[in-house]
Write a structure and sequence with these properties.
The structure is a single chain. The protein has a 10-stranded mixed sheet with strand order 5-4-1-6-12-8-17-10-9-11. A 7-stranded parallel sheet has the order 19-22-25-28-31-34-37. Strand 2 and strand 3 form a beta hairpin. The N and C termini lie far apart (about 50 Å). The chain has 17 helices and 37 strands. The relative contact order is 0.13. Helix content is about 25%, strand content about 25%. With about 525 residues, the chain is α/β, with parallel strands linked by helices.
């Protein structure tokens, strides 16, 4: 089953700041961060190929580095790039002219730090169609074991779980349910991160009036996987044409007073005419669309295309939804019955929908039916490496040769007196000396590890040197770092190319070249 370009366009959003991953992304795009010795982008492209996509658009300021890797490893999928300047956030790039000109239909947006193997995407697409939605969001329901582990990790560091985790406050219409079955769609009524909420969470009376069955959740996670109707892109651009480009003023000369018009700066124009601007999809755009479901004043800001109702067409194209009687009675004869594939159909004349439905926001809650995680923090990056090493995904596997309970590349050299424990990976051309112990850790390519080195619960990236007697626990050693003899590293992150002197120690800290400069 494939997605036709005239209907949905797949976008990988490889933009935004990565401060939470310092120093991992100081010298490397987030898309190329290694998860179990594979860059994140490789998992995403494999997922999209399995889902039936044959084309993807990658928006990034790091085009050259990512293009080099994708050209070598994923020739089957047509990968297009749009280069944007560094520092732009997710909503800002969507109204960048070079990007906007490339987006001609509904847009599926995937964050560059998401790894998922679920088969949810066809259900999400059908929900978006049949609900005539403005926005459809993927939510992940963590297992009880994962929630307990996160709380325990927070307590171990002496911090509250809300302060130490990427918590989302998510409001849904009714009790939560997984949407793998027909009829499990839920309306999204509230979505904010704990960081943006602050100390006090407020829910408007208007929202409770419209949706008295609202339920609030803190265990559901926003996967940063969104479907946006194409008309939503119109409201991202600063709507300058509605504001006078020039403002009247007076020119004073020695002899006359002449009325003239002076141009306003974009910033002053937005302030004077209260033009809404969007920086982040999650922080700005999603709350705005969610609020449109209950706010008539916000609905007035929507483009006319938002009020077109093609629901009967949507049901006819659905592969997982049947046509209700209330909708089939409105169907165009040309639309026909349910279709078994994603194909282009001539659209019937649009009809006006109710104001609350034109900006409908819905969710798909993904439970235990697949793997879904984001490498957006150091903790989650470590966990994802361990997940792939222990086969937590039913689909994704390391590239190294599988052993009884670990993965060791055939070109790696491991001394016979060294033990490589379960859930470990050793990359190609890496050499490990005598009497070493490696437990639940990932070792990249071309690493040189001396004798009597102990590595536990750590990630060692490519081209790292760990000399004799080093002890690495719960840490990340970035590419090209050099650790001299007798060093002890615990709960620390060592940046790219960093050189650590003999017998030095690091605990609960970040050591990076850029921090020295």
């Amino acid at each position: 089953m494939s997605f036709v370009k005239t209907e949905f366009q797949m976008v990988i959003m490889a933009v935004g700041e990565s401060q939470a991953l310092h120093p991992l992304c100081d010298d490397m795009p987030k898309s190329l961060l290694p998860i179990a010795n594979r860059p994140i982008i490789s998992y995403q492209l494999e997922f999209l190929e399995r889902a039936g996509f044959n084309e993807v658009l990658i928006i990034t300021p790091d085009e050259a580095e990512i293009r080099k890797w994708t050209n070598e490893h994923h020739p089957k999928i047509d990968i297009q790039f749009v280069a944007v300047k560094a520092g732009l956030d997710t909503a800002e790039v969507l109204h960048d002219r070079a990007v906007r000109d490339r987006l001609k239909c509904n847009v599926i947006i995937m964050s560059s730090d998401l790894v998922t193997d679920g088969q949810f995407i066809h259900h999400m697409v059908d929900m978006h169609r049949t609900k005539n939605a403005a926005l459809t969001v993927l939510l992940k329901q963590p297992s009880q074991e994962a929630i307990a582990a996160q709380v325990q990790a927070a307590k171990a560091k002496g911090k509250s779980s809300s302060a130490n985790q990427d918590v989302d406050f998510i409001g849904l219409d009714g009790a939560p349910c997984r949407t793998s079955a027909v009829g499990g769609q839920q309306r999204l009524l509230y979505l904010k991160s704990a960081a943006s909420v602050g100390e006090e969470l407020s829910i408007s009376k208007s929202l409770l009036h419209h949706y008295p069955s609202l339920s609030l959740h803190t265990t559901l996670k926003d996967a940063h996987f969104y479907i946006l109707s194409n008309w939503v892109l119109d409201i991202l651009e600063p709507n300058y044409e509605k504001a006078p480009p020039l403002v009247p003023t007076l020119s004073l000369t020695s002899s006359t007073i002449t009325p003239i018009k002076v141009p306003l700066s974009p910033k002053d124009r937005r302030r004077k005419y209260k033009i809404k601007t969007f920086t982040s999809i999650k922080k700005d755009l999603v709350p705005f669309l969610v609020a449109c479901q209950t706010s008539e004043s916000k609905l007035q800001a929507l483009p006319s295309r938002a009020f077109e109702n093609n629901q009967s067409l949507a049901y006819s194209m659905s592969t997982t939804q049947s046509i209700p009687a209330s909708v089939s009675s409105m169907s165009s004869p040309a639309a026909g019955g349910p279709r078994a594939s994603f194909s282009f159909i001539e659209e019937p004349a649009p009809t006006t929908s109710s104001s609350t439905e034109c900006a409908g926001c819905y969710v798909h809650v993904m439970g235990s039916e697949g793997y879904c995680a984001r490498a957006n923090t150091l903790h989650s990056f470590m966990e994802m490496n361990r997940d792939i090493a222990r086969n937590a995904s039913a689909v994704f596997r390391p590239l190294e040769r599988p052993g009884k309970n670990n993965y060791i590349h055939e070109l790696a050299v491991v001394h016979v007196q060294t033990q490589i424990g379960p859930d470990c990976i050793v990359g190609s051309n890496s050499k490990i000396g005598a009497r070493c112990g490696v437990k639940k850790s990932i070792i990249g390519k071309n690493c040189v590890i001396g004798d009597n080195v102990k590595i536990a619960n750590s990630v060692i990236m490519d081209n790292v040197r760990l000399l004799d007697g080093s002890n690495i626990t719960d840490s990340i050693i970035c590419e090209g770092a050099s650790i001299a003899e007798g060093c002890t590293i615990k709960d620390a992150q060592i940046g790219t190319g960093y050189v650590m002197q003999a017998n030095a120690s690091a605990k609960d800290e970040v050591l990076a070249r850029h921090d020295r400069e």
